[in-house]
Amino acid sequence: MIHTFPSVFVTPNGATAAVVELITDTTGLTRWVDYIPIQFATADSTDVNTFNAAGALLVDQLLSTTGKVAGVDYIRVYEDLSTTEAWSTNTAGYIPIYKYQDWTQNNLQLENGFNLLQESGELINLES
After folding, report:
1. Distance CA 48, CA 65 (A)
2. Domain span at 44
């Protein structure tokens, strides 16, 4: 698969996530040039990293952009709830995304004793 965006491997099966910064102000920025309009997808109905109607791009949100360059190390995204057309780059378009942190939370859980469990119920051994 060819990636045209900054990405990282985030899951044991090799899925990738685009690296993004979620901005809250678009003053002075141009849509589809300086940032990408997005809407967050919900976990139960999301096909991660597919472009079908129920799909969404998996993303890894940066907490800090210090020392990083927009467009090189990460992509700026802005949650625009006024948009209505998924996977479209017109004025009403947006890219549906799903945060890697949400994927982790929905697929892993802590059991008593702070062991990590997969959604299947299998224990994840953190010690070697």
Report:
1. 25
2. 7-99
